Amino acid sequence: MKTSHRFDKYLGTLWRVRDFRMLWLSLTITHFGGQITFLALPLTAAILLNASPVEMGILMAVEVLPYTLFGLFTGVLVDRSRKLPLIIMADVGRGLALLMIPIASWFNVLSMPILYIVGFLVGIGGIIGWAAYQVFMAERVGRDQLVEANSRIALSDSAAQLVGPGLAGMIIHALTAPIAILLDAISFFISAIMLRSITPASTDAPKLQGKSFSWPSIWDDAKEGLAMIWRTPILRSIAFSLMMWNVLKHAYMAILILFATRELQLSAGKIGVLFMIAGLGFLLASATCQRLNRRYGIGPIMLIGLSMSGVSWLLVAAVSAERFTMLHFGFALFFFDFGAMLFFINYLTLRQAVTPDHLRGRVTSTLIFISVSLSPLGSLAGGIMGEFFGLRATIAIAGVGGVLLGVALLRFSPLQQMMHLPETAHLPPPTAEPGGPTELAA
């Protein structure tokens, strides 16, 4: 018992709950696998297929395109379904999609169109699986333990960010990128098997029952999620701030690997080490987030975290292929990951806390939809600008945009006044039969 309490000091109390441990462990496994594909997919394009900046932009765009096309209605699917089967199906689907790359490589038919298809299919699985996962986790742990749960998830992500890229770099160097992607596919299958052992609970029941899958019914439900965001100033501000931030981020991410491999002449192994350094930023943020929130307020910490992005991108643009390249580049990536994680730990907690149970799926997916709706354009713009203006100049442009966005948010966002987690918004649950359309406030 004393040993258990000693662990509680570092891990909280949720680690004692078996279902949460299985959920946490399965996500940790897919996070580690995801780190492999995060590097292996663009490295496959950049090194094996000699992709141009425009092709890299297209690859990044198709990976996030499902969020733009289907994000608004994914929440309806989540709220009308049992979440755990959706998560399992998404894991299996992503695993099967990723298998296409090693198979195509084995038969020597690997091409950019195949990467585009895989990226798109993995994106579909991602939007369904991640939305269902977040709602499922929030329902299982309850509002009082959301910060602890999200901190534990952030800790897993931090560990994956810390160790995963180095492992990915070594695997890619030793076995080639397609074989590394095979390991990520296997991680999704392992996760699906683990999730099947989670015990069903009453909270898993669909929040919307007895409704048809007709287009008017689906659209009415989707508009409830939009209305919730529109009527909640904090959520509305976050949605549109993230939308602008993601445009800049995806322009930067579209060409980052090209910049590292071609302008800085870094190998896959060195890139893996750099992203391990970045993982230290995730680790530090997950370990200090709650303490910083208590001292400075949840809203100011979110804004400061997001504002650090633009500065980090400017630091990346200033990296040169000289003696201290690894140190300079690694610090810039660390700075970005630390700030981004401070924002997103609190963002996930805030979103889950203020949203009524019956709207969680729709609000989750609608916020994802709004925040990434223009991201494909950002990826394409990054690729095109990288082609015509150069990789370094494009990263610098994203950095300037990020700094200006951060200054505007620190000045005008309602988050600057939010010191504590607000209460759940009080909206009546829907009836079994759909009523009239929900109108957005003007």
Describe the structure.
The protein is mainly alpha-helical and 442 residues long. It has one domain: Growth Hormone, Chain: A, CATH 1.20.1250.20. The protein contains 15 helices and no strands.
User: What's the number of structural domains?
Assistant: 1
* Percent range for β-strand residues: under 5%
**CATH topology value:** Growth Hormone, Chain: A
Low-confidence stretches: 425-442
- Largest sheet features: none
SS field, number of helical segments: 15
Instruction: Tell me the structural class.
Output: mainly alpha
N-to-C SSE series?
HHHHHHHHHHHHHHH
CATH superfamily (homologous) name: MFS general substrate transporter like domains
Mean of pLDDT = 81
Under CATH at level 1, the class stands as Mainly Alpha
Q: How many individual β-strands?
A: 0
Helix content: over 70%
Radius of gyration: 21 Å
CATH architecture: Up-down Bundle
Question: Gist?
Answer:
The protein has one domain (15-196, 214-417): Growth Hormone, Chain: A. It has helices at 2-11, 18-48, 53-79, 83-106, 112-141, 146-175, 177-195, 215-231, 233-263, 268-296, 298-317, 325-354, 360-372, 375-389, 391-412.
